[in-house]
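Today's session is about reading a structure prediction critically. Students often jump straight to the picture, but the first step is always the sequence itself: look for stretches that repeat, for charged clusters, for runs of hydrophobic residues. Only then move on to the predicted structure, which in these notes is written as discrete structure tokens rather than atom positions. Here is the chain we will use throughout the hour.
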Amino acid sequence: MRNPCWAPAIVLMVAIALLLARGHAAAAPDGGSSAAFRHACDLYEKGDFDSALREFQAVKASGIENAALYYNIGNCYYRQGQLGRAVAGYRRALMLAPRDADAKTNLALIRAAVGNTDSTLAAVPAAVTSLPLRFFSARQYQWVFYLAYYVAAACFLAVLFLRGRLRRIGIYGLVAALVVGGIALALSEYGISKYRAATDGVVVRDRAPLKSGPGDAFQEIATLPDGLELKVRAKSGIWVEVQLSSGDVGWLRDDTLQSI
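Below is the predicted structure for this chain, in token form.
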């Protein structure tokens, strides 16, 4: 080796990559199946939706979060006729698996029944910023980041120890990997923050009264159907200010609304 003094730097890069992988894996909203999850699925197949929902909720309470779990929770609520809570389940599933065709189909059926549109497309800026998360989840962007990091490490070695054309290729590859890795890391962090933020909500009670202000004394300006999606703007006590896809703004009691 021509530059043995670079060995500590190489070891340091690998150590940093492993630490980043561990940290991001812990932060990622994901998890695995379990015996309790399989038991809940068996209950669902038998038509015992109430018991299945309790089991799925217990799995969630244990710290497991994945698209399959939220999809099944959505199915249980749908079977119970609770459209709003079903929407919340499907929306959460799609945050973790944006290309899940079954969750998309079920969500579209409820939206058609309620007469709602995709609330994430209510404003052009929101549609643009949410576009990358419609194809890949935060965890998938993390794996792109890990791959780009190790490609960058390999290219860095090529720049150190090779000469001529191969060294130039290594430089181009290093720059490209750093750019791709940086973008993937930014999108991963954005996806995790969006997953944890409660900026969207769904009505979970039929004919929920929408008030002109935060209190029962204010004028009722509309009644909202179970399953209607909307934007959460602010909160005052037990009242939440919301914005409909039409742009109209009003206040709902927090017990008629579930955050997504």
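Discussion point for the tutorial: The CA atoms of residues 71 and 90 lie 5 Å apart.
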